[in-house]
Specification:
217 residues, globular, 11 helices, Four Helix Bundle (Hemerythrin (Met), subunit A), mainly alpha
């Protein structure tokens, strides 16, 4: 893991765990996310359209077996679902911003159910400019939710009715590679969700994307 990102992530986790450093922890999280976003934006500048779909490690184990367009969709669909349906109990950006139509996506899920050629088949249908607009809107809306969190909110569990909404909405596939996500998220408290989909999950996928980019270039 990138040492600087790893250190920022560890520091954030430590700071948000105490009432008197909670706000400082949020600030560290926002700086980390901005640094990671700079890397995501560099892909838009440095890669051509075909390279977003390229899968040089298709048969490997790990996040680098995907492609960069998939990783953008996957990371921010998960963040959108977790931030809005589970934490805030409101409408996901995908729907409020009409992003399924705008991106040309054939799916509304996280994409966990897709494998190998299915991934590149999916991403070739995406409008990359609109995908980046979705990324930016999800990031902004999540950070507004986090900004409004109080320290006492961190121990809150996900209400059962929100889990039921998630299960019935179709945003998580019932494929065995995806359906486990529902219990995984809903067993965590808000602090656990901040520490994974909103931070560590970004790092893991962006590092995989950098590995793909380096192979392509």
């Amino acid at each position: 893991m990138n040492k600087e990102w790893s250190e920022q992530n560890k520091r954030m986790q430590s700071l948000i765990g105490k009432p008197d450093t909670f706000e400082e922890g949020k600030a560290v999280l926002f700086r980390l996310r901005n640094d990671l976003m700079d890397t995501l934006l560099s892909f838009k500048k440095d890669l051509n359209r075909e390279e977003f779909d390229a899968m040089p490690f298709m048969n490997a184990d790990g996040y680098h077996s995907k492609n960069i367009a998939y990783s953008l969709w996957h990371v921010f669909r998960i963040e959108d679902i977790v931030a809005h349906t589970l934490v805030n109990g409101d409408e996901e950006v995908l729907f409020s911003g009409n992003y399924q139509s705008r991106t040309g996506s054939p799916i509304i899920t996280t994409g966990n159910e897709l494998v190998k050629e299915q991934i590149s088949g999916f991403t070739k249908q995406l409008d990359i400019d609109e995908l980046y607009s979705y990324v930016a809107d999800v990031k902004k809306s999540t950070e507004e939710i986090i900004r409004n969190l109080k320290y006492g909110d961190l121990k809150a569990k996900i209400p059962a009715e929100r889990k039921e909404i998630l299960q019935s909405s179709g945003v998580v596939s019932d494929d065995e590679n995806a359906v486990w996500l529902i219990d995984y998220w809903c067993k965590k408290d808000v602090r656990g969700l901040v520490q994974m989909p909103f931070s560590r999950h970004w790092i893991m996928h962006i590092e995989a994307c950098l590995r793909i980019k380096n192979k392509l270039k």
